[in-house]
Design goal:
Blueprint: H1 2-49, H2 57-73, H3 78-90, H4 92-106, H5 111-156, H6 158-187
Helix pairs in contact: 1-2, 1-5, 2-3, 3-5, 5-6
């Protein structure tokens, strides 16, 4: 009976994971994608109205970021999005452009562009948090626990035992050399 309960629990967990991965998570990511589409449309409307120059650094950088985000979220793969987020984090040119845009926007009175940029980065942050939730709250603590346990185990038995064995060998050699020096010292003519 216990085996049947474990089997039912295992199948239930597997079914929940399949439904979550195949239906729920794509639907949630699709909602975020549609919000990014909306931001892209709002940004394009700003350019069409003439409130934002289509050739400006602000417009081209943000529209490129938005289009790239739409592209990587279309596959619904966590790894694609994380690769994109890591690329944005490590790419110094893009980071310099974003900083320059922030400096330029401090002197401008275009709150609509600022809201679009803010909303875009909030959506990206929400996707990142959603995609890494299990990693941050389950895998990292488990890995940290096993790493700490392994380190304690190694400290308590492995390395200490090796050090003790080597120390013992060194002491044996020391005693042997001491004995030899005493033995050969008695043989020397005075």
């Amino acid at each position: 009976m216990l085996a049947v309960n474990f089997l039912i629990a295992g199948v239930s967990i597997w079914l929940i994971m399949v439904i979550n991965n195949n239906y729920l998570q794509p639907a949630l990511k699709n909602r975020s994608r549609f919000r990014i589409y909306k931001l892209r449309d709002e940004l394009s409307l700003l350019a069409m109205k003439g409130e934002l120059d289509e050739e400006s650094e602000e417009y081209t950088t943000l529209i490129d970021l938005i289009n790239s985000a739409i592209g990587v979220t279309s596959s619904f793969k966590v790894t694609d999005f994380l690769r994109f987020a890591f690329y944005l984090h490590k790419n110094e040119e893009i980071r310099r452009k974003i900083e320059a845009i922030k400096q330029n926007l401090n002197g401008t009175d275009n709150p609509e562009y600022c809201r679009i940029a803010r909303d875009f980065f909030q959506i990206m942050q929400n996707i990142l948090r959603s995609d890494t939730r299990i990693l941050r709250h389950v895998f990292f603590p488990v890995l940290l626990f096993f790493t700490a346990a392994l380190a304690l185990f190694r400290l308590s038995s492995g390395p200490r035992m090796r050090v003790e064995e080597r120390k013992k060998v060194i002491m044996e050699i020391d005693e042997e050399f001491h004995r030899y020096s005493n033995q050969f010292g008695c043989m020397s003519p005075a």
